[in-house]
Design brief:
Helices cover about 30% and strands about 15% of the residues. By secondary structure, the chain is of the alpha/beta class. The protein has one domain: Alpha-Beta Barrel (TIM Barrel), CATH 3.20.20. Helix 1 crosses helix 9. The longest helix is centred in the middle third of the chain and has 14 residues. Bound molecules: S-adenosylmethionine and iron/sulfur cluster.
């Protein structure tokens, strides 16, 4: 699959198992302690009230039914999942679900130092920490005021707690091309796997403010300066393509959701914190399924999930509206 101006190429992978929907992103909150420029407007987004958000009991009932319908991997997300109280207890109960083989979490990392060990002990296997820049000033600008040191402390807490693999998500924003050497240094020093993620234009107002940076543009820098080699994704099926930097402990990868149309290989469902199930990041609100009325009816819930999976579209639909919801409300 060719990206950018065509000089840099991402290595193709088999799509044989592509149509297996086995992965659920479970958003436990729409609230967040940061305000990343590509995710939210400066004033933030209106938060749902507590009674609009699924309780942990309801989330567990949904997860159990999803596992019964064929989901084997769950990623806890948000908003910022670590701002929700009682998360470790919830994780422990999720991890105990029979049939679940992989439990992970995506976080901005800032609160991880205080809870990484507890989450690991609760049965969480893996974490992704979102760090879009390794330059203090740029990080503060992209997060509207957070401190890079706090996110790096979270990353180190994740490594110390024994999560494996630990990945770093970095959304490709203008200026990232000048940070390639810093990210290379990060994977030399720490056993972490960086994934540069193409910006997805979910919110038109925010999209108008940001230049799109194709994954291929950064890959060219990586190829030109660091002689990377493509490696198989060692972490299961997913949209990322990975590259090894000679001598480094970790890898650098790319998720090219816009340049590389991976809809045909999509294996995921998304449950938003308000109980609405999405089979596509970009699907319109009228295609969402409100699962709350089905909680307490396990057979009906499993049947509805199975039906949603059966009806999932694998066609590219990036132009479709997301119903005005931003990433923090959907869960990434
Ligand atoms: N707050 C957590 C975090 O930032 O990791 C979890 C939720 S966040 C919505 C999940 C992921 O989505 C993060 O890696 C974030 O960088 C990414 N993300 C947010 N908005 C995005 C956008 N418009 N395009 C691509 N990725 C985006
Ligand atoms: Fe919050 Fe994550 Fe969105 Fe940043 S990307 S504003 S940390 S939800």
């Amino acid at each position: 699959m060719t990206l950018g101006d065509g000089r840099a190429t991402l290595v193709g992978v088999s799509t044989s198992a592509a149509r297996r929907v086995d992965y659920l992103r479970l958003s436990v909150t729409d609230r967040c302690n940061l305000r990343c420029v590509y995710c939210m407007p400066p004033e933030g987004v209106p938060w749902r009230s507590h009674d609009e958000i699924l309780s942990y009991e309801e989330l567990l009932a949904f997860a159990a039914a999803a596992v019964a319908a064929g989901i084997t991997r769950v990623r806890v997300t948000g908003g910022e999942p670590l701002v929700r109280r009682g998360l470790a207890g919830f994780v422990e109960r999720l991890a105990a679900l029979d049939g679940l083989t992989d439990l992970s979490l995506t976080t901005n990392g800032v609160l991880l130092p205080g809870c990484a060990a507890e989450l690991r002990a609760a049965g969480l296997a893996r974490v992704n920490v979102s760090i879009d820049s390794l330059d203090e000033g740029r990080y503060a600008q992209l997060t509207r005021g957070a401190r890079l040191g706090d996110a790096l402390a979270g990353l180190d807490a994740a490594l110390a707690a024994g999560f494996s693999p630990v990945k770093v998500n970095a959304v490709l924003m203008a200026g990232v091309e000048d940070e390639v050497d810093r990210f290379v240094e990060l994977v030399r020093q720490r056993e972490v796997h960086v994934r540069f993620i193409e910006y997805m234009p979910l919110d038109r107002r925010l999209a108008a403010e940001h230049d799109f940076v194709p994954a291929g543009f950064v890959l060219e820098r990586l190829h030109g300066d660091h002689h990377v080699e493509a490696v198989d994704g060692p972490f299961g099926l997913g949209p990322a393509r990975y590259y090894r930097v000679p001598g480094a402990r970790g890898t650098i990868g790319f998720i090219a959701g816009v340049s590389d149309h991976f809809c045909a290989r999509c294996n995921r469902l998304r449950l938003m914190a308000d109980g609405r199930l999405k089979t596509c990041l970009f699907s319109a609100p009228e295609r969402e399924l409100d699962i709350r009325p089905l909680i307490g009816r396990p057979a009906a819930l499993s049947a509805a999930i199975a039906q949603a999976i059966a009806g999932k579209s694998f066609d590219r639909c990036v132009e479709a509206p997301s119903g005005g919801r931003g990433m923090s409300q959907i869960g990434g």
